[in-house]
Specification:
The complex is a heterodimer.
Chain A: H1 24-63, H2 68-111, H3 114-119, H4 123-128, H5 132-137, H6 141-146, H7 150-155, H8 159-164, H9 168-174, H10 177-183, H11 186-192, H12 195-201, H13 203-212, H14 215-241
Chain B: H1 4-7, H2 17-49, H3 58-80, H4 84-89, E1 91-95, H5 103-112, H6 115-118, H7 125-129, H8 136-141, E2 143-147, H9 151-171
Antiparallel strand pairs in B: 1-2
Helix pairs in contact in B: 2-3, 3-5
The chains are: A mainly alpha, B mainly alpha.
C-alpha cells in the first residue's frame, strides 16, 4: 500500500497549492533555521532548569543562616516589582501565542485532507473494539421506556396507510389454515352448544317438528313420559309402604353403572320408534 | 307433569309396574283383535271353500288363543326383544346385566311366562315390589324390562313444537286485540 510509506494514515501534511513550487534550497534553509532555533531553545531550557536547581539549593542554604528571615523579606520586597513585571510579560506572551495559534490553526486545518482521514477509518475495526454488552449494561432501559409516550407515538402512526400497503391475499396465502384447524378442539366447542335452545328458539326447530313429529308421535311421547311419571310415583309408594331404607338399583349394571363406575360399553342402542300400528 | 326431556334420564332404568301393565294390556288387546279377526277370516274361508263349517269354541278356542299368544310373544321377543305393546310404551327386554336379549333367554322367558298365572298372579308381584322389577319368569330367564325409547328425539320434538307455538303466538296478533 502506498499510503503506509508516508507515516500513519491521515497525518501527512499536504502542501498548499501555492507552496508546491517551493525551491529546494529555500526549504533546506528553512529547515536549518528551524533546527538551529530548536537546538538553541532546548539548550536554553536546559540551562534555565539547571540554574533553577542551583538557585533552589542556594536558597535552602541561605535560609538556614542567621538573619535569613530578614534577608528573605528584604529580598521578597525587592523581588515583588520584578514578579509583577514578569507576570505582565507572561500575559503578553500568552496573548501573542494565542493570536499566533489563531492564525496558524486555520491554516493547519486547511492543510488537512479530512476526507482522506475519514476514508481511512475502518468502521468495522472501530466497532469491533466497542464492548456493546458493557455499553448496554449501563443503559437503564426502564427509565428510557418510561420517558416514551406510547400514546403519542401510536397517534402518529397512520394505520390506514399501513393497512393500505398490506397485501391481505398474500398474508392469507401464507396462513396454514389446516394447522390452525387441527389445533381447534371441535368437540369442546360442540359441548358448549346448547342444542336444546337452538331447536327451541330457531326455525331449525320448526323443521325438526315438521319432519319428525306427527300427532301419533307427540301423543306417544306424551303417553310414555306420563307413564314414566306414574311408575315413579308407584315405585316411591311401594318403597314407603315396605319401609325400604336402602336405594334400589335403577337399572341393570351395564345400562346404569353404580356411582363412580364408568358406563358400560356399548350402551343400549336407542330403539327406533315403534310403528303406529304394531305388526303382529 | 313429566315431560319428555325429564323422562330422558330414565332410559335404561327398570320399567315400572304401570308401564308394564299397560304394555301387557296393549299386547292382550292386539292378540285378541288379531286372534278374533284371524279366526273369523279362517272360518269364512273354510265355509266358502269347503262344505264344512269351522266351529272353534270352548277349550279349542282357549287353546288356540294360548297358542296364538305364545306365537305372538315368542316371535316378537326372539325377533325384536320386545312385544308390540312394549314398543308402544317404549320398553325393552334385556338380560339381567343389561346385555341384549338373545334367542335362548327369550325362549326360556316364553316357557316360564305362564308361571305368572299358574302362581295365581303371585309371579307378577316381583314387578311391583321387587327391587329389580323382575317377575318370576324374568328371574328364571335372567331377564329384565327397561325403559328404552327414543327419548332424545322425543325431547327435540317437544322443544321444537313448543318453540314453534311460541313463535306463532309472537308473530300473530291476539285475536281479541
Amino acid at each position: 500500500m502506498d499510503d503506509t510509506s508516508h507515516g500513519s494514515p491521515g497525518t501527512d501534511l499536504v502542501p498548499l497549492a501555492g507552496a508546491r513550487g517551493l525551491p529546494r534550497e529555500l526549504a533546506v534553509a528553512a529547515d536549518l533555521a528551524l533546527g538551529a532555533g530548536s537546538r538553541a531553545l532546548r539548550t536554553a531550557l536546559g540551562a534555565g532548569a539547571a540554574g533553577l536547581a542551583v538557585t533552589r539549593a542556594g536558597g535552602r542554604l541561605v535560609a538556614r543562616l542567621p538573619g535569613a528571615g530578614l534577608a528573605v523579606r528584604t529580598a521578597t520586597g525587592a523581588a515583588r516589582p520584578l514578579a509583577a513585571e514578569g507576570a505582565r510579560v507572561r500575559g503578553d506572551v500568552v496573548a501573542q501565542a494565542q493570536r499566533a495559534l489563531e492564525a496558524v490553526v486555520p491554516a493547519v486545518v486547511a492543510l488537512l485532507d479530512v476526507d482522506a482521514i475519514v476514508g481511512s477509518v475502518d468502521p468495522d475495526a472501530l466497532l469491533a473494539r466497542v464492548d456493546a454488552d458493557a455499553l448496554l449494561a449501563t443503559v437503564d432501559v426502564d427509565a428510557l421506556l418510561a420517558t416514551v409516550d406510547v400514546d403519542a407515538l401510536l397517534a402518529r402512526v397512520n394505520v390506514d396507510a399501513f393497512l393500505a400497503g398490506v397485501d391481505i391475499d398474500t398474508v392469507i396465502a401464507r396462513v396454514d389454515v389446516d394447522a390452525i384447524a387441527a389445533r381447534i378442539d371441535v368437540n369442546a366447542i360442540v359441548q358448549q352448544v346448547d342444542v336444546d335452545a337452538i331447536v327451541e328458539e330457531t326455525e331449525l326447530g320448526t323443521i325438526v317438528a315438521r319432519s319428525t313429529s306427527g300427532f301419533a308421535s307427540e301423543a306417544l311421547d306424551a303417553a310414555r313420559a306420563q307413564t314414566v311419571g306414574v311408575d315413579t310415583l308407584v315405585t316411591r309408594l311401594v318403597e314407603r309402604v315396605l319401609r325400604r331404607r336402602s336405594e334400589a338399583p335403577l337399572g341393570p349394571p351395564l345400562l346404569v353403572p353404580e356411582e363412580g363406575e364408568a358406563p358400560a360399553d356399548p350402551p343400549l342402542a336407542p330403539a327406533a320408534d315403534p310403528p303406529d300400528a304394531p305388526a303382529p | 307433569m313429566t315431560r319428555a326431556r325429564d323422562a330422558m334420564e330414565h332410559q335404561g332404568h327398570y320399567a315400572g309396574p304401570v308401564s308394564r301393565l299397560l304394555a301387557y294390556a296393549a299386547d292382550t288387546f292386539i292378540i285378541g283383535i288379531l286372534y278374533t279377526a284371524g279366526l273369523a277370516l279362517l272360518r269364512f274361508a273354510v265355509q266358502a271353500a269347503t262344505p264344512w263349517t269351522l266351529n272353534v269354541e270352548g277349550a279349542w278356542f282357549a287353546v288356540g288363543a294360548v297358542a296364538w299368544g305364545a306365537l305372538y310373544f315368542g316371535a316378537s321377543w326372539v325377533g325384536f326383544g320386545r312385544s308390540p305393546g312394549m314398543s308402544l310404551l317404549g320398553l325393552r327386554i334385556v338380560r339381567g346385566d343389561g346385555a341384549s336379549l338373545d334367542r335362548r333367554h327369550a325362549l326360556i322367558r316364553l316357557i316360564a311366562f305362564p308361571l305368572g298365572y299358574l302362581t295365581l298372579g303371585l309371579g307378577f308381584l316381583g314387578i311391583v315390589i321387587g327391587r329389580t322389577r323382575q317377575a318370576i319368569y324374568d328371574r328364571i330367564a335372567d331377564t329384565a324390562v327397561v325403559y328404552d325409547w327414543d327419548a332424545e328425539a322425543a325431547k327435540l320434538r317437544e322443544l321444537a313444537t313448543r318453540g314453534g307455538h311460541r313463535r306463532t303466538r309472537g308473530a300473530a296478533p291476539p285475536a281479541d286485540a
